[in-house]
Amino acid sequence: QDNSFEQFIINYCNEKLQQIFIELTLKEEQEEYIREGIEWTHIEYFNNAIICDLIENNQTGILAMLDEECLRPGTVTDDTFLEKLNQVCATHQHFESRMSKCSRFLNDTSLPHSCFRIQHYAGKVMYQVEGFVDKNNDLLYRDLSQAMWKANHSLIKALFPEGNPAKINLKRPPTAGSQFKASVATLMKNLQTKNPNYIRCIKPNEKKAAHIFNEALVCHQIRYLGLLENVRVRRAGYAFRQPYEPCLERYKMLCKQTWPHWKGPARAGVEVLFNELRIPEEEFSFGRSKIFIRNPRTLFKLEDLRKQRLEDLATLIAKIYRGWKCRTRFLLMKKCQIVIASWYRRYA
C-alpha cells in the first residue's frame, strides 16, 4: 500500500525487463518480416521506452534529479525533490502529482500532496516521496570502511575492499540509485547478448488456493504482461522460420531431386522440395534468406515424413549391408571350393 524508494527501483527494473521483452519479441519479430521482404501489416503495441526514459534519462530522469538533489549544497528535503520533479516532469503523460503545474490533478483527492504517481506498463503506482533522499544517500562513510578493513578477521576485511589505504578514492561514493541503474544496465547488456526464452506465470487467484479462477485478475495480468499483443503478432505471423541451407540439409531426403546432393542454390532446392511434397502455398513464404512456415502442423508433418524416411533409409542401409556381407561370404566360399577341387583333382 505504501511505496517508497525501494519499490520505485524494483518497478524500474521491471520496466527495463518488460522493455527487453518487447524488443526481443514484438519489435524484432515484426522487423524481421520487413527485413526478409514478407508481406506484413504492422500490429500496434505499447512500447514502454517512454516510461524507462522518464526514470533513467541522464538530464530529466527521476533518478538523475534525485542524485542532483542529494549532491547539491543547501537545504535538501524530500519536498524539494518533489518540487523539482513537478517542474521538470509536469507535462509528462506518465507522471502525475498534486503539486505539478498541470491542473488535471488539483482536485484528485486520491493523490496526497507528498506523493507522485507513475503510470507503469502494469498500471498506476503511487509513491510516497518521504525517505527518497535519505535512502538514495545510503552511503558507507570512508572512515567506517577503513576501520572495518583493519579488522583481523579475513572475511570482514574482504567485505570492505574500499577501506584499503592503497585504494583511497576521494570522489564521493555513488548513490544507491546510480548504483542500481548501473547494475540494471549491466543486466540488460548481458541479456542482449543471449537468446532468452520467456515463461509467463499467471496467478489464478490471490489466495494461492486450488480450484479458484478470478477472471478479472487473470485478464489484468494478461493485459499488462503484453500477452495480447504477443498473441496477435504470433497469429498474424509465422510459427517457424529457418535459413534455407539448414532447412534443405534437414529435409532433402524427402525429395528424389534433392537427395542425396543438390547442386543449385539452397532456396531453389527448398522450392523444389516443398513443391514435391505439395504443401499448400498459404502455409509458407520465401524470405530473402529464410523459409517461413505459418502453422506448426506443417512443421510437424515435415518432421513425421523425415522420421519415416530416416527409418526407410536405415532399412535400405541394413539391407545393402546384409547383401554385401552374404555376397562376400559366398565369394570366399567359392574361392575356397575351387582351391579344394583343384587340389583334389591333382591328387586323383
UniProtKB/TrEMBL annotation:
Signal peptide: none annotated. One of its GO terms (biological process) is endocytosis. GO terms for molecular function: actin filament binding; ATP binding; calmodulin binding; microfilament motor activity. Residues 184-206 are annotated as: Actin-binding. Gene3D superfamilies: 1.20.5.4820, 1.20.58.530, Kinesin motor domain (3.40.850.10). Keywords: Actin-binding, ATP-binding, Calmodulin-binding, Motor protein, Myosin, Nucleotide-binding, Repeat. Residues 1-307 form the Myosin motor domain. GO terms for cellular component: brush border; cytoplasm; microvillus; myosin complex; plasma membrane. It comes from the Eukaryota. Belongs to the TRAFAC class myosin-kinesin ATPase superfamily. Myosin family. This is MYO1B protein. It comes from Pardalotus punctatus.
